[in-house]
Amino acid sequence: MDRMIKGLHHVTSLASDAVTYDRFFTGALGQRRVKQTVNFDNPSVYHLYYGNQRGEPGTVMTYFPFPGLAQGQRGTGEVGVTHFSVNPGTLPAWQARLAQHGAQPTAIEEVFGQRALAFAAPDGDRFLLIEREGDTRAGYHNDSLEPELAIKGFAGASLRLADIGPTRELLTFMGYEPLETRDGRQRFHVPDGNGADHIDLEQQAGLDKAGSGAGSVHHIAFAVADRAAQDRIRQALIDEGQAVTKPIDRDYFWAIYFRTPGGILFEIATNEPGFDRDEDLSALGSQLKLPSQHAHLRPELETSLQPLDTV
């Protein structure tokens, strides 16, 4: 694919409460809410985005918070852990901070030769902070977070599968290269990527298939520069036998979707036009933004959606 994929664009998960997750990401993690809009397919539900100052591709975690949604079931065919990049030497401070916020941090460990700290979000979705040298991305921090602790963005993600073989072939086709294998995990990476450039494959043949619910990743999105690159990748995937959707306008990027052989929903999203297309950079995430097809619902949605804290 001529290295058109540059790494992750965003990761989207399900949650059971909008306010709880909004406070967790802006409070415990010190991230910026870069957009509050609605699920385009179900406008009664928020779609909330958190990332760095501009919401740059490779930094953005997003949520569909369905009020009272039942817990998801861990298993195979899912994104098991999402990885964030932080400055070297900051994990002890993060460990203390996450404990204060009830995020169940583990002991600091080594993952592929890098110091890492696992923790959980309110619905049990799992994350990993990884100390990485040379990550030059400008991390975002608000008044609640020391600047040196700022999260740089994603480092990558771990996919939990019953059989890693077909997904390994797919990642290779998408331009990922095998890096190394340790502790039963195989790491792939995109050379010269956007920083969110690795995917780990974990084979767990003895586990049941994952069940979707609160704390589950809905889909994982990969970044391409523009629609021309997206069109080329879409055709290449179709030629390889993948059932790929037509491009869908998500206002802040164009998206195509397909289900992997391992059962995970992949998206390929464009870096353009970005989250500042309908808000000034200084005001990102401060107002409810609606796609044109749902604009007529504003009076109803402003009453029914949970009010979020002012940012």
Describe this structure in words.
- With 311 residues, the chain is an alpha+beta fold.
- The strands form 2 sheets. An 8-stranded mixed beta sheet has the order 2-3-4-1-13-16-15-14. Strands 6-7-8-5-9-12-11-10 form an 8-stranded mixed beta sheet, with helices on one face.
- It is globular.
- It has helices at 18-28, 91-100, 165-173, 227-239, 298-304; strands at 8-15, 32-39, 42-51, 60-65, 78-86, 109-111, 114-120, 126-131, 153-161, 177-182, 185-189, 198-203, 217-224, 248-249, 253-259, 265-273.
- The protein is built from 5 helices and 16 strands.
- Helix content is 16%, strand content 35%.
- Strand 14 (248-249) and strand 15 form a beta hairpin.
CATH superfamily: 2,3-Dihydroxybiphenyl 1,2-Dioxygenase, domain 1
Helix and strand sequence: EHEEEEHEEEEHEEEEHEEEH
Structural class: alpha+beta
User: Biggest sheet: strands side by side, in what order?
Assistant: 2-3-4-1-13-16-15-14
Which of globular, elongated, flat, extended, rod-shaped describes the shape? globular
Largest beta-sheet characterization: 8 strands, mixed
**Strand residue percentage:** 35-45%
N- and C-termini, Cα separation: 40 Å
CATH architecture: Roll
| Rg, Å, rounded | 18 Å
Counting DSSP E segments of at least 2 residues, the number of strands comes to 16
Quickly count the domains: 1
- Count the DSSP helices: 5
